[in-house]
Structure formats: C-alpha cells, structure tokens
Amino acid sequence: MAELFGVDLGTHLASIIAEYSSKESIYGYPKRKFYLGFPGYDFSVQFHDKIAATPLGPASGPHTQLAQNIVLSFLGGGRIMELKTVQIQDRLEIPRPCIDARNVGFNVEWSQELRLEDSLREYVNAWILLKVIEETGMLGIPKGDPFYQTIFDISVGYDLAGISSPEVHDWLKRIRNAKAEIAAAKETLPAEYDAVKNLDIDPHIADSATLSTFHGCPRDEIEAIVEHLIVEHKLHVIVKMNPTILGYDFVQRTLHEELGYTHIELDREAFEKDLQFGEGVEMMKRLQVFAEKHGKRVGAKFTNTLVVKNHDEIFQDPVMYLSGPPLHVISMNAMHWFRSEMGDDFPISFSAGITRHNFPDAVQCNMKPVTVCTDLLKTGGYTRMSGYLKALRDEMEKCGAKTVDDFIIRNAEAPYQAEVARAGVSNEARIVPALVKDPRYHCNANRKPPKKIDSYLQLFDCLTCNKCLPVCPNGANFSIPAEARSEATFNYRYDQSGYFVPEQGEDFVLEKPAQIANLADFCNECGDCDTYCPEYGGPFIEKPRFFFSKASYEQFSKYDGFYFVDPHCIRGRMGGKEFLLAINPDTRVYLWQEIGRIEFLLKENHNFISGINLCELPDRELIDMRPYYHMRVLLDGILKDPDAYTSVMLRGIRSQY
Ligand code: SF4
Ligand code: SF4
User: Fold this and answer.
1) Can you tell me the distance from the alpha carbon of 53 to that of 374, in angstroms, rounded to the nearest whole number?
2) What is the C-alpha separation between 170 and 176, in angstroms, rounded?
3) Could you tell me if the CB of 540 is within 6 A of ligand 1?
4) Alpha carbons within 13 A on the beta-carbon side of 181
5) Could you tell me which of 299, 137, 119 has the C-alpha nearest to residue 205?
6) Residue 274, CB-side half-sphere exposure with 13 Å CA sphere
7) Mean pLDDT over all residues of the chain?
8) Are residues 411 and 489 in the same domain?
9) Is residue 418 domain-shared with residue 561, that is, in the same domain?
10) Which has the least CB within 10 A, 85, 451, 583, 590?
11) 551-584: per-residue pLDDT in tens?
C-alpha cells in the first residue's frame, strides 16, 4: 500500500494561487459551487465560547486528514472542522480498502494515518491556508467578515494511557498554542510569500476536543480522560457516544424490524461492554459540574459509527462500522433520549447519516456542529456541502427566519418558543419519532450500489465521467488534457553499424480528450473512487500513478508509476522497466531514455533525430517505443495544464513529509 504524505505550505499556496487565478477552482473544487453565504441570512452558531459562521462541518474522518481536505470543507461551507482523531499509536496498518460507501456506508477506517508530528503540520498548514484565503479576500468577501469564522475541534483517542502519554500530551499543548509550528511553516516559504510570512496568525488553533474511546472503555476511564483534558489542557470536551448506549433491544428493533436492515447483524457483546445509558447520563452530569468548576464546558456527540458483523466481502475484518441512513435514525434517538435526561441546554454535536435533506432538521434540534462524512464520499464529494446550507436557507426562508436561533424558535410549538434550548427540544420531540417512518432511511431505499458497466479500466481512456475526482476525500485523482488521436507509431531496431532503423508499430489510439491519473502520495487506497467509478478495476489502481518525489517513487517500487525529476522531465516505471522523458521547452526536442539501454532525441512530431546505445545492445535488438507514446501523453498533458493544482504540486514540489 502507498503511504499518505502531506506537502509543504509553499506548495499549497502556489497551487491555490495558480489554479484559482486561471481556472477559478481550488483543489479541483469549482468556484460556482463554493459556499459564499446568502445575503440577509446569518447561519452563525456558538460552539463552546467561540462563534462559527455555520453549524456545518466535516466529521472527524477522511475529510479532515490532510490540509487540502480542510480547505475543501471550508469552500463547501464547513466552519466547525472536526479534525481526524490523533492517538499514541500513529503507525497503524489500516486494512484496504477501508471505506464502502456503495449505499448504506461501512468502514474499517480508524484514526489519523499520519504520524502525530505530520498530523499537526497538516492542521497548522490548513489553519494558515484559511487565514490566507481570508487575508487576500480572494473569494470576494472582505477580510474580517464573519463569513470566515472557523473553529478547529481536536479529536483525540482512545485511552487514558495514550492520551496522557508524553507524545500526545505534547501534541495537545502544541495545537493549543502553535506559535512555534506556525513560525516553522512560515519559515519554509520562499521570498515570494513574504506577505504570508508577515501575517499575524492566531496561534491558538483549538481549545476544544471531542473524545473518542475504544469499544468497551470503562466509564471511570472515560470520565478520567475528560477530567484530564479539562485540567491538563484547558479544553472544552465533547464525549463521543456509541450508538450502543441505546441498548441492544432498541437498536435491533429499529434496524431490523422498523427499517428493514435484516441482513446487518449486530454485535451483542459490544452493547454489553460499552457505556450503558444510565451510567453515561450520570457521568455527564458529574462532568458538567467538574467542567463548570474549571471554567469549561462538556457535551456529548451523537454518535460514533455502529459496530456490526462483517457480512460482505469488501473488508477482511470480522467486524465493520455502520454509518449513513440507518445510523441517522439510531443516533437521533440516542441524542433525544440523552438530552431528555440531561436537560434542554445540554450541548450536543451530531454526526450520523447527515445529508442535505436532514441537515436543516438537525440544525432545528439545536445541535452544533452538525457534521458529515458518508454523504461526502458520494458523487460530488465536498461540493455537496454547499447544498446543505442552501437547504437550510430554503427552510429558513419558509418560516421567515434570518438567524439559526430564530429558525429553531419559529419551528417550535407555541409554548416552547420563549428560548432557543427549549425550542430545540420541542423540535426534536417532533422530528425524531417521525424518522423511523421516513422511507428515505429504510433498507429498500438504500440497497442499490452505484451502477457499473461491463468494462474494465485501462491505463488510458475510460468513460471520462470524472466521478472519481470529487469523491476522493484527498483530491488524489485528477484529469489530464489530451488530444484524441490515432497515430502511426515507430519502434526502432538496432543495427550493428550503430543505426536505429524505424519499423512501423501498432497505431496509438487515444479516444478521449482527457485522461485520468492519480497522485499516489495523497491516496490511501480507501477504495471510494472504485465504488463510484462505473468501470471495474479502480482508478487508483489502473490509472497512471504519480509520486511527488523520487523517494516515494523508489519506496513503492512494486508499483508502476511516475514522478517529475524537474518541471520538464518525468521518470517512469512501466512493466518493471525504467524510462525518462524530458522536453527542452525552447527547442521542443524530447529526450527519451530507456534507462541504461538507449537514449534518443525526438522531434515534437515523434520524428527521430538521433540515438545512442547505452549498453551492449545485440544486433537487430528491437526497441519497443510504446512506453514513450504513453509518457508523451502524460508529460504533454500535464505541461498543457500548468495551473492545475496537481501540475503545480508535481512539477514544483518543495518538500513532503
Ligand atoms: S484516489 Fe480513490 S482510493 Fe485513493 S484516497 Fe482517493 S478515493 Fe481513496
Ligand atoms: S476512472 Fe472511472 S470514474 Fe474516473 S473518469 Fe474514468 S470512468 Fe469515470
């Protein structure tokens, strides 16, 4: 499996600036789908003691792993970013694929796949990039506008020993005050970014955390971790609850009898081992008192994914984790039960099966943030987020509300309209019981996988539907412009007298004017683009794979792949052989090497100029030129689109980690 690598701040900045100024998109996300606010509507919400411009955010997961993911979430309108969970074990081997978002949504995903140090760097870079977007006003919204108010919420796991270890302790201190890390990131910038170097950036990246614990983590340990985070790190803390808190019988009845997911088998043991409802309520009541004494707030998040038996062949593990529509119904009930015990104003954040259809209702229940994961893995990816906020605007318009609080109040029944917390509970009492009857959440509505056609992907040409681009949480797939063509090709036969004699080869046919490729260093082989690709094979497997550096190209030598040696030269491995193709931008002459074997100079139209035998080629040896024609498509296409973020990154990468 390839490994995830982030890229440095300067490379991100160069990519954003080049792509946005020439193509009006950022990391492939087009401006026409950016969330740019709705005049007259204020979506802001308070989360702990900060204000966020919207209650929407990416859930802690694949959409908050790398810096670009967080920027993409921001462009979609996310303003409370639940950073991917960090933990002491930062060298995990995650099984692949790890995501199955065909319909319901399952995963065997876990915490950050990056090392602790690298995760921090990604979050710091994202923090800086959002400040740069604000500072430059590049989206057309002036600096200082409440539109930019964004909160980063740490997610940390999984047990007291890990969280209080020196490594995680240090990590939490550093993200609480990232002065040194911000300075270090600025230090890497070249002189052209002096304005960014001189930016005054708030180093307090996060002052709240959501706690994730292992299944079966005892109540007293959860409580001790929360106290530790409050006392040692001065954090507000949200405890992520498991759906098992509802008890086996309720979940089984809801999932099987009411929603019809009879093929999904629950793990009874997990229900018995996990935190029980009563002890969860008592714990949170004690923690509320504890937090208040320390000037902090605690709340609960509904919910974690639901552990179920693996009934399919996508994953190897015996259990997997359910998300999506059925989890929405279960988690909304868990939230409703819990708040009924805790009181109207008990802070709740929510993430389970959120879509544009139920987002306004979730907001109406006075939960913040409302975060999303599974739905963003579907066609359109991050661009789906702006649709959530449009749906919220539409619902607010219907009831004449201009602010989120007013929206909550106006939807409540008459006696409960006096204050927001009571109104939220009144709304939830209306919304939650109706969910189980809504066919949208039933098994019958969530059976169909995305359509496949009877065709397998190859290196070049495919349906060119571009679905694989936005579904990738990391922006790892990209499109290269190409010219559709059918052209004669030539191989060369070595002649003992030192000549290379042309022999006509098979015609090279390219049917599509765009070709798909993959950035291996941004791809963790989660499998999501394979799910949404109409053809079989998986774009991240079959399409040309580009590495950012020689080091990662060499590290993953079992894969065919390519990297840029310099901005006009790619080196590649195809069928186990090594090649190099470079263009002289002034003369338009191409240098072609089959490493250690031959070196040719060729004209732009492929005409042969000269050739050198780099080894002892036997007489009449045939030089197969197919790799040359393939690499010409890649090099020419990337050079033709120099402002795409992928071109900027591949050609100008400064460093990666
Ligand atoms: S390219 Fe495909 S497999 Fe790789 S990270 Fe993106 S969605 Fe997952
Ligand atoms: S690789 Fe698949 S998803 Fe991507 S453009 Fe081609 S057919 Fe569409």
Assistant:
1) 23
2) 10
3) yes
4) 26
5) 119
6) 22
7) 95
8) no
9) no
10) 451
11) 999 999 999 999 999 999 999 999 999 999 999 9
Any idea which ligand is nearest the CA of 528?
1
| Alpha-carbon span 135 to 121, nearest angstrom | 21
Phi-psi region of 350 (alpha: psi -120 to 50; beta: other; left: phi over 0): beta
Looking at 377, 412, 437, the residue that finishes a domain is 437
Domain boundary among 437, 464, 486: 437
- Note the pLDDT tens digit of each residue in 180-190: 999 999 999 99
Closest residue by Cα to atom 3, ligand 2, is 533
Residue 2, pLDDT above cutoff 70 = no
CB atoms within 10 A of CB 220: 11
Does 186 map to a domain?
A: yes
Query: What's the CA gap between 204 and 236, in Å, rounded?
Result: 14
Q: Are residues 286 and 358 in the same domain?
A: yes
Q: Which amino acid is at 421?
A: A
- Ligand 1 mean position, distance from CA 551 (Å): 21
Cα–Cα dist 336/330, whole Å = 10
CATH of the domain at 132: 3.20.20.70
Distance CA 165, CA 56 (A): 32
Q: Are 83 and 89 in contact (CB under 8 A)?
A: no
| Nearest alpha carbon, ligand 1 atom 7 | 472
Q: Are 572 and 561 in contact (CB under 8 A)?
A: yes
Q: Are residues 223 and 354 in the same domain?
A: yes
For residue 153, with 0-12 CB atoms within 10 Å meaning exposed, 13-18 middle and 19 or more buried, which class applies? buried
* Residue located nearest, by CA, to atom 2 of ligand 2: 533
What beta strand segments (E) does 103-164 contain? 106-107, 151-156
| One domain, residues 204 and 285 | yes
Instruction: Give the ranges where 198-324 is alpha helix by DSSP (H).
Output: 219-233, 248-252, 268-273, 277-293
Only one residue has tokens 């004494």, namely 293
Whether residue 65 has its Cβ less than 6 Å from ligand 1: no
Q: C-alpha angle 95/98/100, rounded to 5°?
A: 145
> What tens digit of pLDDT does each residue of 448-459 get?
888 999 999 999
- pTM for the model: 0.96
Instruction: Give one DSSP letter per residue of 523-589, joined into a string.
Output: -----HHHHH-SSBS-HHHHS-EE-SSHHHHHHTTTS-EEEEEETTEEEEEETTEEEEEEEETTTTE
Q: Is 309 left (phi over 0), alpha (psi -120 to 50) or beta?
A: beta
The answer on 284 and 170 residing in a single domain is yes
The Cα–Cα gap between 147 and 137 comes to: 11
Query: Above 80 in pLDDT, residue 110?
Result: no
Instruction: Give residue-wise pLDDT tens across range 62-103.
Output: 999 999 999 999 999 999 999 999 988 877 777 778 888 788
| 329 is a domain residue | no
Q: Is residue 419 part of a domain?
A: yes
Q: Domain tally for the chain?
A: 2
What is the Å distance from ligand 1's center to 525 Cα? 5
> Nearest 5°: phi and psi at 159?
-140, 170
Q: Domain for residue 204, yes or no?
A: yes
Average pLDDT over residues 365-370: 98
Question: Domain limits at 520?
Answer: 477-652
Whether the predicted pLDDT of 306 surpasses 80? yes
409 and 545 fall within a common domain? no
**Which residues, judged by CB distance below 6 Å to any ligand atom, belong to the binding site of ligand 2?**
457, 462-468, 516, 533-535, 539
Same domain, 234 and 341: yes
